Amino acid sequence: MKNSIKVERAKKNITQAELAKLAKVSRQTINAMELGKYVPSTVLALRLAQIFDVEISEIFTLEDSDWV
Amino acid sequence: MKNSIKVERAKKNITQAELAKLAKVSRQTINAMELGKYVPSTVLALRLAQIFDVEISEIFTLEDSDWV
DNA sequence: ACTATTTGACAAATAAACTTTACATTTAGT
DNA sequence: ACTAAATGTAAAGTTTATTTGTCAAATAGT
Q1: Which PANTHER family does the UniProt entry name for this protein (chains A, B) (predicted)?
Q2: What is the pTM (predicted TM-score) of this model?
Q3: CB distance B43–A39 less than 8 Å?
Q4: Is residue A68 part of a domain?
Q5: CATH for B36
Q6: Strand C: which nucleotides have any atom within 7 A of a protein Cβ?
Q7: pLDDT digits over B5-62, tens only?
Q8: Nearest-CA distance from B63 to chain A in Å?
Q9: Residue A34: which pLDDT band, with cuts at 50, 70 and 90?
Q10: Quick check: is A8 in a domain?
Q11: Is B65 among the domain residues?
């Protein structure tokens, strides 16, 4: 699963720490997520979409490997 | 988090077992999800949206309690 | 160059998602 | 009423998300 959180964050011009606060998660969670180290829960994904005011599909996209 | 998987499934007229196969999870996972017993992972949520050909936000909606 | 801020990274712990197996209950068809 | 299919439920186990704490590396401002 790919995500464009870093890009959305850049658009809003906020730091990982600030986004973490808005999304109510730890900064490490945002960081690891941006680096593709793991996939956020659906609740967090929905929160982020709401924060960035975009559809989830605009931020998160499935890859072929996600269907194995 | 609420979801309308049961409704989407009804639209397609398929059983939990059939959806489970399409989404590549166990039938119990679909069942528990429909009953609100737990929230699917983002990967599974994206898979379901793709299967039903709708936006994730059409299936999954945040509730106030998801922001606590 | 110095300093502060931001980001990347790791480890240990907890919580939550998901699987498998198995059984009970409900629903629909005949 | 009988039967088969579909759905609900539960326990035990595995995997993955998330937290907290901590430190190193990179970036930006002065």
Answers
A1: HTH-TYPE TRANSCRIPTIONAL REGULATOR XRE, TRACRIPTIONAL REGULATORY PROTEIN-RELATED-RELATED
A2: 0.91
A3: yes
A4: no
A5: 1.10.260.40
A6: 5-11, 16-22
A7: 999 999 999 999 999 999 999 999 999 999 988 889 999 999 999 999 999 999 999 9
A8: 10
A9: very high
A10: yes
A11: no
- Distance CA(B61)–CA(B15), nearest Å, equals 23
B7 touches strand D (CB under 7 A): no
- Structural domains in chain A (count): 1
Tell me if A35 is assigned to some domain: yes
Please give the residue range of the domain that contains residue B13.
Answer: 2-59
Task: State what percent of residues in chain A have pLDDT above 90.
Answer: 87
Interacting residues of A59 by C-beta distance below 8 A, sequence separation 6+: A3, A4, A5, A8, A45, A48, A49, A52
Distance between CA atoms of A42 and B46, rounded to whole angstroms?
9
